[in-house]
Amino acid sequence: MSLSSLKFASFLSYKPKYEGHKDLISAIKQDKIHPKRGLPVSEAVAQDVKEKIENFKDFFGPEVYLVPVPKSVPIKQGMLWVPERIARELEKVGLGRFFDCLERIEPVKKSSSSDSKERLKPADHYKTIRVNPKIERPEKIVLVDDVITRGSTFLGCADLVSEAFPEAEIKSFAAIRAISSHSYFKKIEDIHIGLITRSPDGTCSTIYCSVKMATKRKTSPSSSSITPATSRKQAKSYFIHI
Amino acid sequence: MERVTLAELMGPLNENEKKFAPPVVFVEGNRSLMADGPRVSIIGSRKASKEGLENAAALARALVKKGIIVVSGLAEGIDTVAHKTAMNKGGKTIAVLGTPLDRCYPAENRELQDEIMKNQLVISQFVPLSPVQEKNFVMRNRTMALISHASVVVEAAEKSGTRYQAWEALRLGRPLFILESVAKDQKLKWPKEVMKYGARVISVKDVKPLLDVLPASGGLVSLDVAF
Q1: Which residues of chain B are under the pLDDT cut of 70?
Q2: Contact A96, A64 (CB under 8 A)
């Protein structure tokens, strides 16, 4: 099944290939210990998401199944798999239930190192990932990844998961979002909620909204600058297309 | 000589990194060098070919030019060339030994080891005066993978100990590169296996793919202000 779009949330932002962000992305991709907080980055992200849950409340909750997105290559047992670390930490803070059902069976070229012409499509991921059968019937699934660029991996995984669990509502969450158009970058901690959309040629792009951070004191739903998008057309009116 | 934990040397370790990390290491030389820039291991065979030695030298030159610290194991062959080239080009190098600091293997690298101890940094996880065993070198290779932000295999035979570092780098989620000449060698099976799990092919003429995945510093500078 080919989904036309998928809702996503991300917590941090960075500019790919910008020297000042290389330590940050390296630390996230290796789940390093945050030097000031003394926690792995995955745990720090999960704690912060919980603290700022007002901005993510459509995404997380005890009933949500958290599905880590496979790496671009198969893994052997014991190899670092950062999306798995993030999903487990989100589970630990009560934001969902860890649900490991996707497995990469063939390597694909890494999205982050591909130039735009060779960039992978959701279909490339769809063909190289399999869903391991599970007896559960989740109603809400959030795909969890470390980095989102254009969302091809998420959309390929969502296609697979929607076939295996047709009743489930599927969304996606990434710890950090790559902002390729550097002029759109604002700051590292910058929550985005948006849509991954499929183009006619099978590639992906994202339309997103930078969220004005909600604080615990705010109680009215209108205090957040976003409302749920019911269609791409509606979304376009307040999302920025890049 | 100082006795320090790896956390003191390179910052706190996550659970994955702790798995094969030695509880303490012994260091001689300039400890602050660990924070001076990203660290890349150049690794390969002791009985290296002429092409392998040339590639090791070319790679070390390219890395030094970018301010990257060359890490290697002070063995003969690729390691020796990597250390010597780094220093000859005014760069920085770290030797990670399979022997205690008071021993040298091979013996003919005594002078090189002394020079690195004096002006650069030498690390060993083995207690001084302890016997040198075959397994030391496997343990040393894992430690090298851990202290390096990335590893590059210049040349390695089918049964080479270099493979241990390659697999450890992949386990840790550290970028692993193998030179084109290794990847194209039809007699070797291990390069195809590590490529299936994420190793990437690189040419000494174009190290940009390696530079792209390295942090900017030896520490986690921008993470401090990120969140």
Answers
A1: 220-225
A2: yes
